[in-house]
Every structure is written in structure tokens, then in C-alpha cells.
Amino acid sequence: MTPELNLDGDNPAQQHFSAHNPIEQYVLLSKSAKGAACLELIKQVLEAPGVHVFGELLAMPNITELQGGANASYYNALNMFAYGTYRQYLDNQAQVIQLTPVMRKKLQHLTIVSLAIKTKCIPYKELLQELDIKHVRDLEDLIIEAIYADIIHGKLDQKNKQLEVDYAIGRDIRKGDVSEIVGTLQEWCDSCETILVCLENQIHRANSEKQKRLKHKEAIETEITNLKKLIKVQAGNDSDEAMATDSGREMSVGNPDPRKKPIKQKNLKVGGTAKAHSRQLP
Fold first, then answer.
1. Which pLDDT tens digit goes with each residue over 161-183?
2. What are the distances in angstroms from CA 112 to CA 49, 84, 158, 264?
3. CA spacing 20 to 30 A to 68: which of 110, 124, 222, 235?
4. Among residues 63, 65, 66, which one has the least CA distance to residue 55?
5. Could you tell me which residue, 15 or 136, shows the higher pLDDT?
6. Is-contact 29 51, C-beta < 8 A?
7. Could you tell me if 128 and 136 are in contact, meaning their C-beta atoms sit under 8 angstroms apart?
8. pTM higher than 0.70 for the full model?
9. 3-state DSSP assignment of residue 132
10. Strand spans (E) along the chain
11. 104 vs 45, 46, 109, 218, CA distance in Å?
């Protein structure tokens, strides 16, 4: 008879761990699980929704004891879910337990995550091959389920027949992969340093250009100010010359030659002259 494992957890602390780290409750149970209870625990964790990392459970003493024993297939299955893919499961079915439909779908979802780590645009052709799916419609249904489960975020590009991944959950990391991760992070840091130096050079160049333009602007403004002053002075001189010319013209019209005295005209007495002419008439 298979023992029943209580995973509900009435303890508030245990519920807290379950909400933020779903594998934690299984890790706690594995400390006391022995024999068939340990095997049942593995089967339950492989089907449990929301549990996608298994490294902590693999490291527990009661779990590692299964490795190399009669129940090694349980340990191998747990190891497959932690680090493997669905294609690897198909190639090594004899070494792991028989997976239920729920387990198969979960491993397929994890395989999509592994593919998303390598590239953000996964062709349908590669997905069909890695997940051992015959029809595109079934593949899209599987991907949609993974999106609704928050395992990945992305969209289906049916025109180009590919999955565009924007986000994917993390998976367990092998100890041998740590050096590769460190190398990748170091390359990222070096790239950031290079970009930072480039940005600093661009900022320095931009500031230099700004100073040149400010100096050029100041020189133009100074030249404009000087031109305005010069134009104002010339306008004042032209006004004075015009006033002097006008005054000279007025003087020449009123008295052309100031040295000559004005001529006084004698008024002829018309009446006396007429009388003289009348006397001479016979």
C-alpha cells in the first residue's frame, strides 16, 4: 500500500514557504521520507503545479540514496526534470520511471524553457522535433498552456512559424555550468565597460561641440552688437550733415550775397505823371 503524504501544511510558516518556494515543502518532507514514501514523494513533486526547480530536493540525503540502487529510475527521473529535456527522456526511457501525461507535459514545458535560454525565437520545426509533437495545432496549444502557467511569456508568430519568447522561468544549474555562467557574465561586464567608455567619449565630444557652438554664438552676438553701434553712429553723422546742408540752403535763398545791401525800389507816382502829360496836350 502506497503511503499518503500530507502536503497541505497547517503550519503558517510552511504555508509561507509553499507560496514563495513551492519545492520547500517537499524538501522538508524528504527529511523523514523513507522507502516507498520517498518514491511517492518524487512522483508527487514531478506532477505538482508550480514546481519547476528540483535541485534542493536532489541534494537531500534520502533522495541521493536512491542513486545506483534498485529505485535509481526515480532519482534519474527527478534528475531529468531538473536538468534534462523531453528529447533526452525519449532517448533514455529505460532508465527512468514511466511518466504520466501530466509529467510529460511538465517536462515539455521545461524543454521549451531550455530552448528559450539559447534563443528568443524558436522555430516551430525545432519545437516539434524536441517535443515529439506531430501537429502544429497541438504544439500551439502546449505553448499557450505554458504561457498561462507563467512558465514563459511570449507570442506565437504564425506567419514566420516561430515562438518569440520575452521571458522564461529559471531552471536548475549543474555545478559544471557555473564556470560557463561566470564566463558569460564576465563577457557581459566587459561589454558594459566598452559601452560605458564609448558613452563617455560621446559625452566628451558633445560637450566640446557645445562649447565651440557657444563661443561661436557669442562671437556672432558681439559682432552684431558692434554693427548695431556702428550703424547708429553713421546714422547720427548723416543726420548732422543733412541738417547742415538744409541750413546752408536756407541762407543762400534768403540773402544770396550777404556783402551786398538790398536794393530799394523807387515808387513811381502814376498820378503826377498823368497830369504832366495832360498839360502838354493842346
1. 999 999 999 999 888 878 888 88
2. 16, 11, 17, 128
3. 110
4. 63
5. 136
6. no
7. yes
8. no
9. coil
10. 121-123, 152-157, 162-168
11. 13, 9, 9, 75
Measured CA to CA, the distance from residue 115 to residue 89 in angstroms comes to 15
Question: Do the beta carbons of residue 128 and residue 161 sit within 8 Å?
Answer: no
Cell numbers given for 113:
524553457
Handedness of CA 117, 119, 124, 125 (dihedral sign): negative
Q: Which is nearest to 152 in space by CA: 197, 198, 121? A: 121
Q: Give the Å distances, CA to CA, from 280 to 212, 269, 270, 272, 274.
A: 108, 18, 16, 13, 10
Written as one letter, the residue type at 61 is: P
Please enumerate in sequence order all residues whose Cβ is within 8 A of that of 140, keeping only pairs 6 or more positions apart, or say none.
156, 158
Distance CA 106, CA 149 (A): 11
> Distance between CA 161 and CA 155 in Å, rounded?
11
Torsion-angle region of 191 (φ positive above 0: left; ψ -120 to 50: alpha; else: beta): alpha
What is the DSSP code string of 80-104?
HHHH--HHHHHHTGGGSPPPPHHHH
Q: Which amino acid is at 219?
A: A
Residue 177 grid cell:
555550468
With a CB cutoff of 8 Å and minimum separation 6, the contacts of 161 are 123, 124, 125, 136
Cα 211 to Cα 10, 198, 220, 267, distances in angstroms: 70, 20, 14, 88
The pLDDT tens digits for 29-50 are: 989 888 899 999 999 999 999 9
